[in-house]
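User: Could you check the structure of this?
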Amino acid sequence: MLRENSWPPRISILSSLLVLLLFTPARVSAQTSRAVAIRISGDLPKHLDLSAADLAAFQRQTIRVTDEQGRQVEYGGVPIAEILEKAGAPLGKELKGPNMALAVIARAPDGYRVLFSMTEFDRAFSDRVILLADRRDGKPLDSRDGPLRLVVPGDKRHARWIRGVTTLEVLRVR
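Assistant: Sure, the predicted structure tokens are below.
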């Protein structure tokens, strides 16, 4: 015998589950696109937590370099100078006097760190573009190199081409 109140709760539960199944993936993908890809902090006017979507809004650049195996490859991404400018780093005419003692430490989650002088990112000091890359030869970086990697053209050794970079910290050397 069928009870009068047994169907509405079942339908209600099924419809609730259906709503969850339909809308949860959209929420998760929106949260994933807002996840912090890189953090910019330290002696700066603004600290930034940039997602992949934030990085996509920057002007992108592509550079051709020789990789660790001696092959010509193309990396695509955002010049670090653009990101530092957005955080208020003293570049251009402001990079003089006491600001010449600014350094940038790039960090990866495995503890690997690389030190740069702020002058290495400034167009007035160097024509080299140090890139925060997210693509290699038109494809997203693989799990070994990415999701983000610093690419430093002109270095004879690739020791500063930090894989999986997650943090750029600006420090004043005292």
